[in-house]
Amino acid sequence: MKPHIERWSRYCSEQHDKVGQTYGKELPYSFHLDAVYQQVNHFGHLLDNYGKVGKVSELTMAKAAAWGHDLLEDTNLTYNDVRQAISHMDGLTISRNEITEIIYCLTDYKGRNRAERKPQKYYDELCANEVALYVKLCDLIANKLYSRLTGSSMYQMYKREYPNFKEKTYNPRFREMYLYLESI
Question: What are φ and ψ of residue 55, in 5° steps?
Fold first, then answer.
C-alpha cells in the first residue's frame, strides 16, 4: 500500500473506532474497510490505472474511497471534515474534491428504513460517478461474501436487494462485477 493510502486508511479506521463502530459483532470496522479495499484491488483492471497529468488515476481514487466510503454515513465527520482530512494526505491532495464527492455519492440518505435511505436520487448520483459505482460494487461484494461466510441473515437481504440495485445501476463497464455478485 502506498504511504498516502496507508495514512488515509489509518485515519479512516480511527474515525470508525472513535464512534465504537464494529463489523459484525466483534470485528474492528477496519476489517470491512480493508475487505472493500481488497475488492478494489481485485477488480482494479476495470479502472484507469495510469496517472494523468494534473489528476490522480481512477484506481487511486477508488482505493482512497474504499477506506473512506462510510465516513459520512457512520462517523461524526461532515463533508468538509473529510475534504479537509484528505487535503493533509500527500498524494491525494490533488484529487481531494473528487475523492470527497465519491464518498458523498456512496452515503445513504437519511431515512427510517433501507428504502427511504436509498431513493432514486441516490442511485442517480451513484451512477453519475463511475468510480463511486465501482466502489459501491466492491462494498456489496465484500458485504455479501462476509455475510455468506458467517451465515448472517444479512446475506438473504443482500440477495433480495440485488436485482433492484442492478436494475437501477447497471453499467456494462462493470459487467464482471455484477456477474460475480450474482454468483455469490
Answer: -150, 140
Residue 177, phi then psi, degrees to nearest 5: -75, -40
Query: Is 126 buried (19+), middle (13-18) or exposed (0-12) by CB count in 10 A?
Result: buried
Buried b (16+ CB within 10 A) or exposed e, 80-108: eebbebbeebeebeebbebbbbbbbbbbe
Length of the chain: 184
Cβ(89)–Cβ(8) below 8 Å: yes
Q: How far apart are the first and last CA of the chain?
A: 27
Beta-carbon count within 10 A of 114 CB = 10
Return the percent helix, strand and coil in the chain, to nearest 5: 70, 5, 25
Q: How far apart are CA 126 and CA 149, in angstroms?
A: 28
Q: pLDDT tens digit string along 89-131?
A: 776 666 889 999 999 999 999 999 998 999 999 999 999 999 9
**Who has greater pLDDT, 130 or 4?**
130
Query: How far is the C-alpha of 7 from the C-alpha of 29, rounded, in Å?
Result: 16
